[in-house]
Amino acid sequence: MAGEWGPDGADCAVAVTFDHLGEAAEIQLGSIAPDAPVGHHHSVTRELPALLAMLDEHSYSATFFVEAWNFRNYPDAVRAIAEAGHEVGWHGWLHEPWHRSSAAEIAESLRLSLDVFGELGVRPRGARPPAGLLGPHSVDVLAEHGFDYVSIAGTAFGTTLGSAARLPLLPYPWHAVDGAYYVPGFTRLRQPPGEEPVGPAGLLEGYAAIVDDTAAAGGCVGLIFHVPWQDSPDRVAAIGTLVDRLAADERVWLARADEIADWVRDHPADFPETAHTDRAPAW
Q1: Preceding peptide of 124 cis, ω within 30°
Q2: Where is each NodB homology domain found (predicted)?
């Protein structure tokens, strides 16, 4: 990896990103019925406003990867994210897991998504396939539908270019997901794996180690938070603490995901084309 990132030549690039909104993932998982009443999900009415206020206080423009279903069901929330100066990325239509989806299912997800992008007038540049894995599907599928970078799980601390489409692939390791610190069952994703949640202090410690490794490798990394899981003031405050620490770290270029992708694209000699292979979490 190149050792200089951003206008000040930092050792690494870091993006703080958010996933999920509304009932989309719950409908996909079957925990609520597809025809259940929607429109008042706590992630929209409570967590999202608190996060937007916190990010404004800490002067950071983040990336929110949102299921496109929300463009139709929570258009005001999607607009609020964009109007606050944050990037809106794509996280599937209804959080369908790409690595377990057929080509026809992926095509339908993209068709529905493109329709609502036009309706709302907000067009995501970046894609994060739900569950972070492409499975048998190519990065080229996303390029053909107008996306110009992809956020992928399983490739730690580097940034490569996709094969035919040459889309920047912005990585995150599994232990850079907040559930590894907060949610029972996900804690085995930590390094080293754990059995119990460790809370915001443990998350900050784990993310600090990830940033150290990323800086040593001269790469980039996405740090992931799920909007519905930021359901207490201490969790929201921890993100503010993280942003402040990253902004003050001379090794780090703290940027949005699209800004990092543009840097990769504008410096092709530093990022040779490399094929990507999904790597599922070690459960």
Answers
A1: no
A2: 30-283
